Amino acid sequence: MYIIKNKFIFLGISGLLVAASIFSIFYFGFRQGIDFAGGTLWQIQSENISGQEFLQEMFPESSVMPVEGGSFLIRMPEITEEQHQESLKVLQSRFSGLEELKFESIGPAIGKEVRDRAVWAFLAVLVGISLYIAFAFRKVSYPVNSWKYGIITLVTLFHDALIPAGMTAVIGYLGYGAELNTNFIIAILVVMGFSVHDTIVVFDRIRENLRLGIGKNEAFSGLVGRSIQETINRSINTSLTLVLVLVFLYFLGSPALFHFILVILVGTIVGTYSSICVASPLLTLWKRSGNI
């Protein structure tokens, strides 16, 4: 009952985080990866490269970023294979033992197509999950209509996606390499899948208690609070297991996966919070507002 009694505090915290995330997204914007914006990503390594000044002078329209292991990541507009080979020869003549670790070049048309498909996939997942929840709870029409479960699930999914997205915008703006790319979309979809699972656990306990007539003589908010108490240990323990794995992966895994893992890590924590402290309180508020 503690969560339901203090629902405005928890909803206020979520509101502040969502507002800050929306502000970050619109103010800072996203640094788009080449798979969305198009361009060339080139990673080279040589013990003779002491700094990035020469690379920045050679590629004035590019951004050069040092990477762990003594390599450099060059991000530039799309170049042809002929330009790639010419530049590689110049670098190899300037720096002995130069090694090319990665070269990716994607045209803007392909990048736009990938971006559009990612957006449609994200929207399709949102709609599909909401419809499934509404269908799964179709027999629960009192005291809250079944479609409201679906709408509230949709709201919590937006909540769980916006906060990691806002974090990514800030990290990208600060120059730590976080980008809006395919990996980011996959991470958000993973977060949404985990979050909806947690939300369903709580909603299903509410449905079961309603079906069995448990708490028929108590207010709906009391039944929801008791349902949260019955499921909170399972939700937290499941999330904690995943969080521990992600923390180890973040500190011990490949640097290339840092931001991917960070989005899932933050999203998992936020998703657990929303399934317990946002979804169910919203359900009680909507019920109290009337039978809409």
UniProtKB/TrEMBL annotation:
GO terms for molecular function: protein-transporting ATPase activity. GO terms for biological process: intracellular protein transmembrane transport; protein targeting; protein transport by the Sec complex. Keywords: Cell membrane, Membrane, Protein transport, Translocation, Transmembrane, Transmembrane helix, Transport. It is a multi-pass membrane protein. It comes from the Bacteria. Gene3D superfamilies: Multidrug efflux transporter AcrB transmembrane domain. Part of the Sec protein translocase complex. Interacts with the SecYEG preprotein conducting channel. SecDF uses the proton motive force (PMF) to complete protein translocation after the ATP-dependent function of SecA. PANTHER family: PROTEIN TRANSLOCASE SUBUNIT SECF (PTHR30081:SF8), PROTEIN-EXPORT MEMBRANE PROTEIN SEC (PTHR30081). NCBIfam families: transloc_SecF. This is Protein-export membrane protein SecF. It comes from Candidatus Harrisonbacteria bacterium RIFCSPLOWO2_02_FULL_41_13b.
